Every structure is written in C-alpha cells, then in structure tokens.
Amino acid sequence: MLTKTPQEAWSEFLETVEKRCSPTEFQNWFAPIRLREEVSEELCLEVPNIFVQEYLINNYKKELSSFLSVKATGELSLSFTISETKKAEPLPQIPLNQLASPSSQHALEVKLNPNYTFQHFIEGPSNQFVKSAAVGIATRPGKSYTLMFIHGGVGLGKTHILHSIGHQVRERHKKLRVYCITTEAFINDLVDNLRNKSLDRMKRFYRSLDVLLVDDIQFLQNRPNFEEEFCNTFESLINQGKQIVITSDKPPGQLKLSERLIARMEWGLVANVGIPDLETRVAILQHKAEQKGFRLPQSIAFFIAEHIYNNVRQLEGAINRLNAYCRLMKLDITQEVVESTLGELFQTSSHKKISVDNILKSVATIFGVRISDLKSSVRSKDVSFPRQVAMYLAKELINDSLMRLASAFGGKTHSTLLHAWKKIAGLVKKDERLRRQIDMARRNLEA
C-alpha cells in the first residue's frame, strides 16, 4: 500500500466507498472533493466547505487509514483546503445599525422575551440534555457546537431555549453580534431586499453576525428559492466558525427541505425537547403561579398536570385563567373551582380508533426517536426500548392478531412482539418513570 501514490490510494478509496454508499450520499459528499497537490507523502484534498471535511473524517477515518499512510503522530497523511469560491469574504466590522436597512432588519428582529431565560426554564428528564447543551453553547458560542438544531412539538419550550441563549450571550459576550429572527421574518426580509435591489446589503448583514438564532425553520419548506439563500448564509457563518441555533417542530430528516440543507443540519448537534413528565409539569405550574404572585397547592398542581400534559403553553394559560378568575371572584383555589374554570382545557378520552401508526407517533414523540427507526431493524438501546414500548401498547390497546400487529412494525414476528410485551409488562410494575411514560402515551392516543 505504501508504494502507491496518495492520488492512487484516494482513487481506490473512492471506488470502495461508491460501492458501499447510496448514489445520493456519494454525490453530496464525495463527488465535490478535488485533489490538490502532493506534498511528499501527504494527500491534499480541496473541499467545498467544512461540512464535507468533517463528514469525511467523522464517518470514514477508519476506511481512510486502510488506504493512506499514517504520520508518526498517528494522524492520517491528509490535509484539506476550502474551495476559494466557497470561502467567506472578509467583512469589515461595521455596526449593525449601519449594515441593516431601516425597512428590514431592525423591524424584523425578534425582541428577546425577558421571561425566556435559563433561570425561568424548568428542567426535567425530557429537556435536561437540551438545556445543558444550550447553556454550553451560550457560554462559549461557536466553540463547542457551531450548529445546534432543537426540535419538538408545539409549546414545549423551543423558543424559550432559543431566547435564553440570546440573553446569556448578550450578557456575557457584549461584543458579539447576536440576531434572533423567525423563518417567516427571514423570508419577508429577503423579499423586501429583492424588491429594493439591496440583496448584497442583506447578505453582508447576515454574514457579519456572530450568533444567529432562527425560530421555526419548518416554514422554509416548499420554498426552494428562499431555502437556497438561507443555506448560503448558513454555510458562510459555519465556515467562519460562528454560532447558529435553529428550532423546528420536526427533526431535520422529516422536513421537506433539500437533501443538501438537511445533511448540513444533521451534521450539527440535534436535540429533542420532549413532552414533560408529571413532576416537571407540576414544577412548571408552581413556578408560573409564583411568578403571578399566588400560591398553588401541590394537590391542585398535580390535578391540573394530570389533565393537561401535551403543551407547556397550555399549562401557563391555565395558570393565567385560574389566577384571574380566583382574584376577580375572590375565591380560594379548590378542585371544584379548577374543574369549572379549566374544564374545557382538560384533555379527556375519546372513542377514536387507535392504530399502530398512532402508537408509533406517540411513542416516537415521548422518547425522541424517529418513527422510521421504530419500524427498522436498528437494535441500539435508544431505539429498541421505545420499539418494545410501542409493541406493548399495540398488544394492550388494539384487538388484533399478534401476527398482524407485529407485521406493522416493519415485518417483525409475533414472537418478537410477545417478548416485548412480556418485558415491558414486567418493567412497568417496578419502574415508576416508565409507567408514567406509558400513561402519557395512552393519554396522547386517547386525546
């Protein structure tokens, strides 16, 4: 192998990889790479952006070591350069108010909500990882994970975390340029600048930022022209080592966006905000009540939390309504008052037919996994355990043969489903957290 030139070794590596990966993956990640020059025994590759470099090293380092020589330090004899056409142009440090046009950026910037800070964010098992990662990013923006992608259902705290990052960065890094915007506002901004023929000014503005916070990226779906400009801005900032945080109601792979943009978003730190468990919902209710200046008895908080469980925003709305009603009517907070005041918000059971697809969707949301993974043959614990929970629920809630139920899980056998049901049935008796997760899944299915 050592008698071959680095170029010949690279060609052999490409031939091997092309046979293993899909045509789309090869075209996205390997076709754009160009050979530069040979420096003694080192292979120099020209890549269009840092994403391709990171993808190659993170996913194919072991394979590369089989084809390329290794230095005395143990590192591959490999170096990279970024294509000149993709390098970000150096920008002068111009104040934001000079870069922004009066009719666009200042008007569209999202003002950070003063209540959306880390101090007011109630942490629980469903959001602990997201909060920890967000605090790390806000402490050292652009250093740990230059891209963070936060996804989760409506009203679970994605915007709260986004604004919390903005607050902390502005507080601790006063010289950094922080900009928070919704995807809809970004689209409107682009339209305005196209109309006013000031697109270059908009590009300079966004590429001058140190921290870009983008809310609700799902609104970029089915808008290819706007998506392309966002992707260019995205790449420019990442190549400069700047920080980007994006929120969405779905993980990247479930968005109807280009493979190019999805691949870049999946390259970053992808974190899910799940539905809060019962204790977290109780803590949220009591914290919101404290902010409003009234005491919420723990028994009442548990009663409300057991009936409102899908949406943190609804919990806050329940506290606002309950507080206003009791103050105006001069009533003490009792369960009867809660039922009469919040009854229409309570999520009660219905008689709709439950299907395996509904179960998979509910379990995927609670455990933060993809529906496609639950139906796949992946055996890692973070996927196989939720899959077993889904099988348990299917047997418990659907009156059908084991064979037909199992086939809905990607063609599994009835013995696999029966084994999963027995395992979860045994665990649920002694695992309180699992019992609550299953109860939550049942409520989601019945709501």
TrEMBL record:
Domain AAA+ ATPase: 144-271
Binding site for ATP: 155, 157-159
Region: Domain IV, binds dsDNA, residue numbers: 327-447
Region Domain I, interacts with DnaA modulators: start-end pairs: 1-89
Pfam family, one: Bac_DnaA_C
Residue ranges constituting the Chromosomal replication initiator DnaA C-terminal domain according to the UniProt record: 355-424
CDD domains linked: AAA, Bac_DnaA_C
UniProt-annotated location(s): Cytoplasm
Protein origin, superkingdom: Bacteria
Keywords: ATP-binding, Cytoplasm, DNA replication, DNA-binding, Lipid-binding, Nucleotide-binding
Nucleotide-binding in keyword set: yes
Oligomeric and partner information: Oligomerizes as a right-handed, spiral filament on DNA at oriC.
Family: Belongs to the DnaA family.
Domain comment (free text): Domain I is involved in oligomerization and binding regulators, domain II is flexibile and of varying length in different bacteria, domain III forms the AAA+ region, while domain IV binds dsDNA.
Entry function: Plays an essential role in the initiation and regulation of chromosomal replication. ATP-DnaA binds to the origin of replication (oriC) to initiate formation of the DNA replication initiation complex once per cell cycle. Binds the DnaA box (a 9 base pair repeat at the origin) and separates the double-stranded (ds)DNA. Forms a right-handed helical filament on oriC DNA; dsDNA binds to the exterior of the filament while single-stranded (ss)DNA is stabiized in the filament's interior.
Name of the protein this chain belongs to: Chromosomal replication initiator protein DnaA
Lineage: Bacteria, Pseudomonadati, Chlamydiota, Chlamydiia, Parachlamydiales
Designated gene of the protein: dnaA
